[in-house]
Design brief:
The protein is of the alpha+beta class. It has one domain. The chain is built from nine helices and twelve strands. Helix 8 runs antiparallel to helix 9. It is globular, with a radius of gyration of 21 Å.
Length: 355
């Protein structure tokens, strides 16, 4: 028996004893399935966003100091918060999810450790990379991953809510974290994948195929129900992946829930596959090796700057002098490329239907 087959047997036996969960893949009756984005007829193309992603990004990057209000604590293992942010030119505050980044620890020196500002279930660089990956095959109005932006909140502002807070990195005067836009009019779908609906509802198949292609490309490995949301509008059932920190490989992930690292939907959109055919490995390296860069200003606060060349191809977080870089490693980018190649091969061989 080949080693790969032996490994599969071991995984199966271990998972059987631990009650691991697998998703059932159904690809019967694929001919005739259609996928179509619903006609907007003058409606907002971003009904589940407070503003389009490009405007949100411009708003956040244009503010030197964020005026925030703590709305609530979201619980979980990462200590996420729900906050509202006021902007001078916006009448209503915009709500975001905030996750403080993990400061450097002694374990970061261990070979298997994620490293400073990176964690098993709190990886800002992977959230940023997931947002970037979708642009290779989706238009902004079809985005699956909400916008996230790294922000460093000055210590005096942060201590208004958390008096004992400390700076994240030595030599700075701020707390690093990730802001992710809070989506509107969404709910946890039950079930997430309805194969019968997929076969008869073009809008549903459109959005579910977008979602699954994204989770496949980033190798999403945390399929807990709360990590995925869908629009409450049944006529426009867009699906979102709101927590993508456990992705792009790694030895630690959630074995005990159905994961979406494989293609589970009955078919994929031909338009998305065609766009991926035009992607090169160099395109991936250019866009994903650095997904955000920050530099220390004269006030000791890290600010976003234009992305430079990767300071390292082996580490996803690079801290050098006054610069912090977030990106994917060469191995992670190579894995995405191999997944694209495998996907196109399976489509061309008829193993994965397109619509």
């Amino acid at each position: 028996m080949k080693k790969s087959s032996q490994l599969l047997v071991v995984v199966y036996l271990v998972c059987s004893s631990l009650s691991c969960t697998f998703l059932r893949v159904i690809r019967d009756n694929v001919p005739g399935i259609e996928a179509a984005r619903p006609e907007l007829q003058g409606e907002d193309p971003f009904p589940n966003w407070p503003y389009p992603p490009d405007k949100l990004e411009a708003l956040l990057q244009g503010q030197r100091t964020l005026k925030t209000t703590l709305v609530g604590r979201l619980g979980g293992t990462t200590g996420a918060l729900k906050i509202s942010v006021e902007f001078p030119d916006i009448d209503e505050a915009i709500v975001f999810k905030w996750k403080a980044m993990i400061p450097p620890r002694w374990v970061d020196a261990l070979p298997f450790a994620p490293g400073a500002l990176d964690g098993v279930n709190n990886s800002p660089r992977k959230e940023l990379a997931a947002f970037a990956v979708q642009s290779f095959f989706l238009d902004p109005q079809d985005y699956v991953v909400p916008l996230s932006i790294p922000v460093c909140v000055s210590l005096d502002v942060y201590r208004v809510h958390f008096p004992k807070a400390r700076t994240t990195l030595e030599g700075s005067n701020c707390v690093l974290g990730l802001l992710s836009v809070w989506l509107l009019d969404v709910t946890i779908p039950e079930p997430l994948l309805d194969n019968d609906r997929f076969s008869r509802d073009p809008a549903y198949s459109y959005y579910m195929s977008n979602f699954n292609l994204l989770t496949y490309l980033i190798k999403h490995h945390d399929g807990r129900k709360g990590n995925f949301l869908a629009s409450k509008d049944e006529s426009r059932p867009q699906v979102f992946a709101i927590d993508n920190g456990v992705a792009f490989g790694g030895i630690f992930y959630n074995w005990f829930v159905p994961n979406w690292n494989d293609i589970r939907v009955p078919a994929l959109r031909r338009g998305s596959i065609d766009r991926l055919r035009n992607i090169t490995e160099e395109d991936l390296r250019r866009e994903l090796s650095v997904v955000a860069e920050m530099r220390l200003d004269d006030q000791g606060v890290y600010r976003l700057v234009d992305d430079g060349n990767a300071l390292s191809s082996q580490r996803g977080i690079r801290i050098k002098d006054s610069t912090v870089q977030f990106g994917l490693t060469d191995d992670e980018i190579e894995d995405i490329w191999e997944r694209i190649e495998d996907l196109i091969k399976n489509v061309d061989e008829g193993n994965i239907p397109v619509m």
